[in-house]
Automatic annotation (TrEMBL):
It comes from Halostagnicola larsenii XH-48. It comes from the Archaea. Residues 201-228 are annotated as: Disordered. One of its GO terms (molecular function) is hydrolase activity. This is Haloacid dehalogenase. Belongs to the HAD-like hydrolase superfamily. Its cofactor is Mg(2+). GO terms for biological process: small molecule metabolic process. Keywords: Hydrolase, Magnesium. The lineage of its organism: Archaea, Methanobacteriati, Methanobacteriota, Stenosarchaea group, Halobacteria. It holds the Pfam family Hydrolase.
């Protein structure tokens, strides 16, 4: 695989880093601060997140819109959702993130051999804060904030924009991410070679439908040897 590779692009959230504040705990506290019983789960928010990316100018706007709709679906008014979103924002610290196993070493090692890019579904100010916090802000030749600068993953546009900046052909480029739907499917649609590092580890079964990743890894510590 290694002889043809010229560029490697990464996802950010739950691929390179993860929050040290559990979303479930923050949402529980947000409901408490807003004075309402729990109306929806953090999973419901994550499942709907991408639907609001392109119409939002930042994470707080996105969260307010999504929480308002989730509150309405639970039988409450939009303002209840706004109150929960405001409380959530007051608790969430975007710099409370930690590197996942093998991430820093993999980025450092591969950056010596290949052009590196980052393609992430997320607001620029939020994702930059995470990159600064984990010490990888200067590690990538290009960063694409999909859903803001381009259409959101899995649309091929953000992958194409990153490859253009890296002056790389898709067939000679690898994309590494944790989400099968956004990362593996999106990279495949753009003609890239997907490497899947599922959040729950490589024991997770590859879905029966959809494109197959070239590799399924337990952690990023396995990535450099696989690509060489």
């Amino acid at each position: 695989m290694s002889d043809a590779i010229t560029a490697i692009c990464f996802d950010l959230d739950d691929t390179l880093c993860t929050y040290t504040q559990r979303g479930e705990d923050i949402l529980e506290s947000a409901f408490d601060r807003a004075g309402v019983e729990p109306l929806f789960s953090i999973g419901a928010f994550h499942n709907r997140y991408v639907d609001y990316l392109e119409e939002s100018d930042g994470i707080e706007t996105l969260r307010r819109a999504c929480f308002a709709d989730l509150a309405v679906e639970a039988g409450h008014d939009p303002e209840t959702g706004h109150a929960v979103a405001n409380a959530f924002a007051s608790i969430r610290d975007q710099t409370s993130v930690g590197l996942l196993p093998g991430a820093s070493a993999a980025v450092s090692a591969l950056g010596e051999e290949y052009g590196l890019g980052l393609i992430t579904n997320g607001a620029p100010e939020m994702q930059r804060a995470k990159l600064e916090a984990i010490g990888l802000a200067e590690s990538f030749e290009t960063v694409v904030y999909a859903g803001h600068e381009t259409r959101a993953k899995p649309d091929p546009e953000p992958f194409e924009v990153a490859l253009e900046a890296l002056e790389a052909d898709p067939e000679h480029s690898v994309y590494v991410g944790n989400s099968f739907e956004s990362d593996v499917a999106g990279a495949h649609a753009a003609g890239m070679r997907p490497v899947w590092v599922p959040t729950s580890g490589a024991a997770e079964t590859v879905p029966e439908s959809g494109p197959n990743p070239e590799h399924v890894l337990e952690s990023l510590a396995e990535l450099p040897p696989v690509l060489r």
